[in-house]
Amino acid sequence: MQHEAIVIGAGQAGLATAYYLARAGVDHLLLDDQPGPGGAWRHVWPSLTLFSTAGFSNLPGWPMPPHEGFPPASHVVDYLGAYEQRYRLPVERPVTVTRVERVGEQYLVHSAQRSWQAAQVVAATGTWRAPFVPTLPGSFSGRQWHSANYPGVEPFRGTRVAVVGGANSGAQIAAELTEVAQVTWYTRHPPRWMPDDVDGRVLFQRNRERALAIGRGEPDPGADSELGDIVVLPPVRRARDSGALRATPMVTSLDEVEADHLIWCTGYRPALRPVRHLVKDGQPLHPGLHLVGYGDWAGPGSATITGVGPHAKRAAHAVAEALGYPVPGRPTGQAQMPKS
Ligand code: FAD
Predict the structure, then answer these.
(1) Within a domain: residue 101?
(2) SS3 204
(3) Pairing relation of β-strands 261-264 and 115-123?
(4) Considering Cα of 5, then 8, then 13, then 14, what sign does the dihedral take?
(5) What residue numbers bound the domain in which 93 lies?
(6) What is the mean pLDDT of each run of 10 residues along the chain (340 residues)?
(7) Ligand 1, closest atom to CA 111?
(8) Which of 94, 137, 234, 260 is the most buried (most CB within 10 A)?
(9) Do 88 and 162 fall within a single domain?
């Protein structure tokens, strides 16, 4: 099968890119390995809520429907499903892309059963398939988990739990576990709490300023480290203020961890497996391959719902220009060649 463009991954980054591809008139197909819409939001732990309100969690074109307080992941899954339908985005699932090959000026996109050909490929495969666990000396005899497969508090009731990681997922998981388990929360540095009256929207605004500055060719103004990085959601605040949630300096060896369970809240890496050989130092090696989402190295804020828009737009417009389509905001007939 041949298309002008193939988008791998139909999470928020893939959908936002497809929205702009459709507007530019580009013939495209999205391939996603999940059984239904929602991307990584299908896999977060049961109690997870966004760290900002619905009004600050919008994809291009159509805002997230309102929700009282901080929306749960199911609200995002519903939104992404409705977004796909609203714009009739052509998603095929479940399809796992195993490898992308460069053949002449084209790309061949392979799954175990089929192949597709396209001149333009957008990788929007996110990070949840590549949980990161640091290597430490020593050994741990209990059960190890990652926040990617943390199932909620039930298996931990009445046990000793070590939670590693000083960012939002570590704080949230450790906070809720303090109600049912004996928790030791290991962090590499003292927790950097954001002010209690500030939520994720401040981070989003900062990311947007950074993305716009980079888009204008100006230096990246950088993250605002003074502000802190843990959003103090109500359950986190309760656990912190009651004294139940306290940080302990990180161990240097697993032998020091005395617990029944160890939960790594140590983040993710880009899930680039099908295109890894086509990417060097975070940059595509050939024209026609684009990376959207993934967080800072692919663009400030690009791993957030509201922040991915400008990055998706830039990638979709680069695709459209390379294919010779007029791009909104550029004079017709002056399509640029893709950057090599
Ligand atoms: P994904 O949602 O992961 O979508 C990628 C899709 O591609 C998935 O369906 C994946 O299964 C699929 N895929 C991967 N590899 C292949 C392959 N080889 N073939 C086919 N399909 C493939 N952001 C916010 O804006 N607000 C928040 O409050 C917020 N809270 C967060 C809390 C946590 C704990 C985490 C982990 C993230 C949070 N984020 C938040 C960040 C962000 O919104 C998510 O990480 C988001 O899911 C990234 O979207 P994406 O489309 O880039 O990737």
Answers:
(1) yes
(2) helix
(3) unpaired
(4) positive
(5) 2-130+268-322
(6) 96 98 97 98 94 90 94 97 98 98 97 98 96 96 97 98 96 98 97 79 72 76 68 92 96 97 96 96 95 85 90 96 85 40
(7) 19
(8) 260
(9) no
What pLDDT sits at residue 116? Answer: 98
Give the gyration radius of the chain's Cα atoms.
21
Spell out the residues 6+ positions from residue 234 whose beta carbon is closer than 8 angstroms to its own.
Answer: none
- Given the CA of residue 127, which atom of ligand 1 is nearest to it? 3
Element holding 100 (H helix, E strand)? strand 99-103
Mutation choice for ligand 1 from 100, 125, 149, CB with most ligand atoms inside 8 A: 125
Best residue among 29, 268, 304 to mutate for probing ligand 1's pocket (most ligand atoms within 8 Å of CB) is 304
Ligand 1-lining residues (CB < 6 angstroms): 8-14, 31-34, 39-41, 44, 48, 50-52, 57, 95-97, 124-126, 128-129, 169, 200, 271, 274, 293, 303-306
**Do 169 and 60 belong to one domain?**
no
| Nearest atom of ligand 1 to the alpha carbon of 292 | 52
Q: Centre a 10 Å sphere on the Cβ of residue 292 and count the other Cβ atoms it contains.
A: 26
CA atoms 324, 328, 39, 134: torsion sign = positive
Rounded to an integer, what distance in angstroms lies between the CA atom of residue 199 and that of residue 50?
A: 10
